[in-house]
């Protein structure tokens, strides 16, 4: 039924202008406005897009809403830190001084939040 449709993900924020600045300015994604009062994030992988919409009673997700795979997690974390991004620390994970989890259970991963408190991850590919 949906095999040929272009599905997309979405999440809410409490301030659309701050979200546009963060995702476009800090993270460097292409951001486009919509006539419906939402914005779309456009990752570099072609046709995919992610809708970000304002919500008056927004509550940040308590799970990762967006993952960014990178070739070099140390380089990505250092670059984001230089842009003012603060990495989160979570109980139950052994994280290094940069906030990166490095273990045999999965890829190197580090989490940060957007201005609305939504959790985002950067993770090492392969």
Short structural summary:
Helix content is 17%, strand content 29%. The protein is of the alpha/beta class and 126 residues long.
Largest sheet: 4 strands, mixed
Averaged pLDDT: 93
Q: Give me the CATH architecture, please.
A: Roll
pLDDT under 50 segments (min length 5)?
none
- CATH topological fold name: 2,3-Dihydroxybiphenyl 1,2-Dioxygenase, domain 1
Give the helices and strands as they follow along the chain. EHEEEEHEE
Q: How many runs of DSSP E, i.e. beta strands?
A: 7
Distance between the termini: 33 Å
- Fraction of residues in β-strands: 25-35%
| Count of discrete alpha- or pi-helical segments spanning 4 or more residues | 2
Roughly how much helix do the residues carry, as a percent range?
Answer: 10-25%
Q: How many discrete structural domains?
A: 1
Name of the CATH superfamily? 2,3-Dihydroxybiphenyl 1,2-Dioxygenase, domain 1
What's the CATH C level? Alpha Beta
Radius of gyration: 15 Å
Shape: globular
Structural class: alpha/beta
List the strand order in the largest sheet.
1-4-3-2
Task: Please give the oligomerization state of what you see.
Answer: single chain
InterPro entries: Glyas_Bleomycin-R_OHBP_Dase (IPR029068), Glyas_Fos-R_dOase_dom (IPR004360), VOC_core (IPR037523)
Domain VOC: 5-125
Pfam families: Glyoxalase
Protein name: VOC domain-containing protein
């Amino acid at each position: 039924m949906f095999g040929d449709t272009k599905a997309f993900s979405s999440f809410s924020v409490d301030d659309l202008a701050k979200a546009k600045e963060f995702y476009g300015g800090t993270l460097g994604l292409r951001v486009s406005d919509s006539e419906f009062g939402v914005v779309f994030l456009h990752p570099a992988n072609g046709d995919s897009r992610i809708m970000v919409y304002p919500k008056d009673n927004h509550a940040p997700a308590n799970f990762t809403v967006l993952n960014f795979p990178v070739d070099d997690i140390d380089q990505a974390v250092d670059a984001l830190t230089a842009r003012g991004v603060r990495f989160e620390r979570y109980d139950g994970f052994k994280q290094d001084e940069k906030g990166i989890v490095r273990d045999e259970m999965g890829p190197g991963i580090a989490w940060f939040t957007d201005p609305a408190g939504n959790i985002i991850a950067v993770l090492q590919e392969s």
